[in-house]
Amino acid sequence: MPAPAPIRWSPAARAVASVLIVGYLAAVRGRKGCRSQPASALAGWLLQPFRPLVGALCLGHGYRFFAPDPGPGHSIRWTVERADGTRLSGSLPDRAADRPRLLYHRRFMIAEKIAPLVPPADAPAEARRDARADWLPLVEGVAGQLLARHGGVRVQLQLVEHYLPTPEELIASEQGRGDGRDTMADIVTPLGTFALAEGTRP
């Protein structure tokens, strides 16, 4: 059998294919640079032209939760007050109560979705004010669900960033070689207190 004729690309086809390949690799590399939140302003600026491609090809995976550099985890701490004055407290997600495991994972994603949008408590007032428009609708949704579920009239929410110790810090802590300071404390950022609208029943 005669050998098949080799496929010959025209210069224009080569140029188009090269641009597509370079664009794809740039999108993948740029998305990797923005995987840790909050990402740098430079990384976000470089990725901006590729956002349609990242969305179309589903490149926005949350690999940072697992490997190779997961970063700290987050949860939302809540306290619900009922009309009779009783209080309920909990965390979102809740390892003990969220069953099956998929429910825990989905509620974990809620906290991780909100966390990158909330500036730290020591951020400039202008930055915190500007960011509020991004995270407040999400937090209000969480507050409304908690009030409805627990029959509350008011709920206080806090974002908790769980410190991720290095292996060296863990070893030093287990061996009692720390300096006496709690370097592995969680960072708590108040999100606010939310109440039912007037005339609304729990």
What do these coordinates show?
The protein is α+β, with helices and mostly antiparallel strands. The protein has 2 domains: 11-65, no CATH class; 73-195, no CATH class. The protein has 6 helices and 4 strands; from the N terminus they run H-H-H-E-E-H-H-E-H-E. It has helices at residues 11-33, 41-47, 51-56, 101-114, 125-150, 167-174; strands at 73-82, 87-92, 152-162, 187-195. A 4-stranded antiparallel beta sheet has the order 2-1-3-4. Helix 1 packs antiparallel against helix 2. The longest helix is centred in the C-terminal third of the chain and has 26 residues, at 125-150. It is elongated, with a radius of gyration of 24 Å.
Describe the structure concisely for a colleague.
The protein is α+β, with helices and mostly antiparallel strands and 202 residues long.
Write the layout of secondary structure elements.
Elements: H1 11-33, H2 41-47, H3 51-56, E1 73-82, E2 87-92, H4 101-114, H5 125-150, E3 152-162, H6 167-174, E4 187-195
Antiparallel strand pairs: 1-2, 1-3, 3-4
